[in-house]
Amino acid sequence: MACQTCRLHARSMLRSALGAGVAAAPSPAARKVATSSAPATVRSTTTTTRIQTARHFSSSSPRHILGLRDSYRVVGASERLFKVCAKPADYRITDEERKQDRVQKRDDGEEIGKAKDAENAWNKTFGLQPSFSTWSHVTMLHLYLINARLRCFDRDEYRNWSQQLIDHFFFECEKKMHLDHNITSSALRQRYLKDIFVQWRGLLLAYDEGLVKGDAVLASAVWRNLFKGDPHADPRALVAIVGWIRASLAALEGASDLTFAQQAAEILEKPVDVFWTRLEAPFLSDQEGGDKTLPQTPQQVKAKAAAADKVAATL
Question: Which residues form the signal peptide (predicted)?
Answer without folding.
Answer: none
